[in-house]
């Protein structure tokens, strides 16, 4: 069975193409896209703020191959994986966005410099960068960032910090900014292109093995995440999962 929109714990996942997603976001003028990993989704019932941030997103995309697989296996729902890696690759090759103002929110100075070099190489011409502080997991607010957004007025905001926090930050910005911006919560996706993350390419992403490349690249970090993802199966059997 093919569905265009699937609600999982009232998070709206869109089985759309890249251009359909961009079109929806541009028409909304203000909103944010999320690409939750399986390990992140598996924890939503234990983190109320994260769940709300995901539920309030304009668009959620199918970043996780494991999520796509168990959707098909347990619910008979076939969707096309549209990972953060795939979405960002399409975005950086989409000429219509390259002359718009883009604000990057990065985890540290090294990543920020690499991201700047990468985006300039890909002909983005109006760039501003912001180094995110360490946010409290329960109260993600950033008035300094909000002021920057209201002054700079970016068309697009690319959040490159960790999952679970980036969605809460996007929710905060979307709720409180005076500017109409489109926010992409893509976490480490840009690191696949700059070399800061595992060397994932289109082939591994397409056959749902991006997780394996990441495990081999950094087993200490990613083996626990893979194991945590297995809890997602249990969430599928809850009564409210697909209400």
Task: Describe the structure using short key phrases.
13 helices, 8 strands, two-stranded antiparallel ribbon, about 240 residues, alpha/beta, globular
Task: Write a brief structural summary.
The chain is of the alpha/beta class.
Helical percent range? 40-55%
Which stretches are low in confidence, meaning pLDDT under 50 for 5 or more residues running?
none
Strand order of the largest sheet: 4-3-8-7-5-6
Question: In sequence order, what are the helices and strands, one letter per element?
Answer: EEHEHHEHHEHEHEHEHHHHH
In whole angstroms, how far apart are the ends? 17 Å
Tell me the count of domains: 1
């Amino acid at each position: 069975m093919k569905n265009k929109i699937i609600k999982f714990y009232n998070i709206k996942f869109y089985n759309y193409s890249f251009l359909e997603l961009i079109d929806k976001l541009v028409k909304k003028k203000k909103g944010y896209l999320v690409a939750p990993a399986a390990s992140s989704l598996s924890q939503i019932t234990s983190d109320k703020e994260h769940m709300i941030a995901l539920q309030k997103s304009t668009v959620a995309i199918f970043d996780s191959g494991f999520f796509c697989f168990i959707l098909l296996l347990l619910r008979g729902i076939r969707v096309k994986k549209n990972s953060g890696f795939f979405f960002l690759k399409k975005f950086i090759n989409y000429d219509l966005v390259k002359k718009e103002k883009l604000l990057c929110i990065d985890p540290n100075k090294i990543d920020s410099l690499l991201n700047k070099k990468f985006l300039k190489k890909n002909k983005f011409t109006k760039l501003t960068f912001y180094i995110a502080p360490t946010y409290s997991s329960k109260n993600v607010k950033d008035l300094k960032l909000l002021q920057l957004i209201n002054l700079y007025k970016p068309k697009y905001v690319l959040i490159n910090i960790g999952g679970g926090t980036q969605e809460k930050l996007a929710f905060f910005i979307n709720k409180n900014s005076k500017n109409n911006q489109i926010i992409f919560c893509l976490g480490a996706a840009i690191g696949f292109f700059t070399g800061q993350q595992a060397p994932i390419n289109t082939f591994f992403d397409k056959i749902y093995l991006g997780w394996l490349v990441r495990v081999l690249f950094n087993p200490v970090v990613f083996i626990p995440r893979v194991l945590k993802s297995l809890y997602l199966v249990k969430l599928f059997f809850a009564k409210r999962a697909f209400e």
